[in-house]
Write a structure and sequence with these properties.
two-stranded antiparallel sheet; 4 strands; 514 residues; 20 helices
């Protein structure tokens, strides 16, 4: 073990030496320049917008809303960008650094290790150790010393928690009550008197399993559980606001969701199609329609305006998309970081706009279904649907769209753009400093990250939602907020066991119900 301790000490010594050299170089070549030109507004005593340029540490910390340098990459650093002669906003406001001075600042930034942590949020180990951000590991199932009460691993987790609290389980429900619960939970309808009588009189060991299988195979299952998802996806047949314009083609997304639940589509596939169905290499009509998830939010298309008003409208729509994506799939209230760093969770304003960049190149479109194979369309019945003759669907697509530059907006104001940001996921969930691809197909990269087996939030969030809809209260009582203001899980081991079972079992919701 001694060699391990020596290696750790050596690594720490090297890291400390590198940081010390960076500080020395800043003090020698950069600090005099910034003191001469910037100290009046950004000194230690008067740091406007929280930006103190007096030390290397304070420069790395950035402003109150964002990092101002990209270690190892001066070209992408706000500090260097703002010093350019044609910069808007230009710093300093009433002067101009010489070319040699700008090069000195840039050289120091380029000399920094790209892994150097930056930003006002200052992600700490305590932040990364928040219960929801910890790696997802299968916990051991408690021993079954429960007087024969437990029939499943779930029972054992519940029993262990009850015993630790000095409680006893409730009596088992009678068979008629049990049947009603299964029916209402899975299809939202009551059993008929004949079905109740048949179940009460069936004392076979697999009676419950057969009822569950029959209900899960029922078309009403997809309608019942699809409705839960449509609530999360803010589905509506009209656009909201004062005009509340009809959306005559919204039903296609509704039917896609119902069909996906009935087909027991793997959850990862279900998520990927809704975020980036148009970018999939094997995209189909259904995967394009799935992107209606991004189109379901309230919209005021009849009053979009021009210029600044139009840009604000676009940013409001993007905010709706990423806020919904964050809460539905990750249990993160990332929308709270639009104008400033999140007040409670380790999510910076920079995180918000980097997350937004995944969607910035996409456009709302009405999809002409004739562009797809006619035989495929014949398989989709349209009788009884509104506007059945109109071959359209609401979709989101990046096809044919040039990449858009995304900038952090100071206080969320489109009239006050800040530094350019590239697509990336929240820092607290990804220690990597490497950027995601900046060109087309951005959303598919985000979808792949969300559905990655190593993403602890995705699998905990959906396992908790299923529990919530069955029992009226999740193991986490705040199913869309796994942050610090949310409730911690009452049964953390059970939640993780369910999440791992679901993930490793192929993401089958029907198996999770069972």
């Amino acid at each position: 073990m001694k060699w391990i301790a020596i290696a750790i000490a050596a690594a720490a010594l090297v890291a400390g030496s590198v940081r010390a050299n960076a500080d020395d170089e800043f003090a020698r070549a950069v600090q005099p320049i910034l003191a001469r030109h910037c100290a009046e507004c950004h000194g230690a005593e008067d740091a406007e917008q929280g930006l103190d340029l007096s030390t290397a540490t304070s420069v790395l910390a950035g402003s109150a809303t964002a990092a101002v340098i990209e270690p190892g990459n001066s070209a992408e650093s706000l500090l260097v960008q703002s010093l350019a002669q044609d910069a808007d906003p230009h710093m300093p406001p009433d002067g101009q650094l010489s070319d040699d001075e700008v090069r000195a600042v840039a050289a120091w930034i380029d000399s920094l290790d790209p892994a150097t942590p930056v930003g006002s949020a200052g992600i700490s180990e305590a932040d990364r150790n928040h219960w929801a951000f910890r790696p997802l590991v299968r916990p051991p199932v408690p021993d079954g010393n429960d007087e024969g009460w437990s029939n499943t691993p779930i029972d054992r987790f519940v029993w262990a928690k009850l015993k630790s609290a000095g409680l006893s389980p409730s009596e088992s429900a009678d068979r008629a009550v049990l049947l009603r619960r299964m029916y209402f939970d899975l299809i939202g309808l009551p059993p008929t008197p004949e079905e109740v009588a048949a179940f009460v009189g069936d004392d076979s060991n697999d009676a419950v399993d057969r009822v569950v299988d029959r209900l899960l195979a029922s078309p009403q299952y997809g309608e019942r559980w699809g409705r839960h998802w449509l609530d999360l996806a803010r589905y509506a047949d009209s656009g909201g606001f004062h005009n509340d314009l009809d959306r005559p083609h919204a039903w296609r997304y509704r039917d896609y969701v119902i069909a996906s639940f009935n087909a027991d589509k793997p959850y990862a596939q279900f998520v990927r199609e809704q975020i980036a169905g148009d970018e999939l290499p094997d995209a189909t009509l259904d995967t394009w329609i799935a992107t209606g998830f991004c189109r379901n939010g309230p919209s005021n298309d009849d009053n979009m305006g021009k210029g600044i008003a139009l840009e604000k409208y676009r940013m409001d729509e993007l905010d709706d998309i990423i806020s919904t994506t964050g809460t539905v799939f990750l249990g993160l209230t990332i929308g709270c970081a639009r104008c400033h760093d999140h007040k409670y969770d380790p999510l910076s304003q920079r995180d918000y706009y980097r997350f937004l960049a995944f969607f910035h190149g996409a456009e709302k479109r009405q999809l002409e279904l004739e562009s797809f194979d006619a035989d495929e369309l014949k398989l989709r019945p349209v009788n009884g649907k509104p506007d059945a003759k109109s071959p359209l669907a609401m979709v989101l697509t990046s096809h044919g769209q040039p990449s858009r530059t995304t900038r952090l907006l100071w206080r969320g104001d489109v009239r006050n753009p800040g530094p350019v940001v590239k697509p990336h996921v929240p820092e607290v969930l990804d220690k990597s400093s490497s950027a995601f691809p900046a060109e087309a197909a951005r959303r598919i990269d985000l979808a792949d990250w969300i559905t990655d087996a190593e993403n602890p939030l995705t699998w905990r969030v959906i396992a908790n939602r299923v529990w919530h809809y069955h029992f009226g209260r999740g193991l986490v009582a705040t199913p869309s907020n796994f942050g610090r203001l949310g409730e911690p899980p009452t049964h953390p081991e059970l939640l993780d066991w369910l999440a791992v079972e679901f993930r490793d079992g192929g993401g089958s919701l029907k198996s999770l119900h069972r």
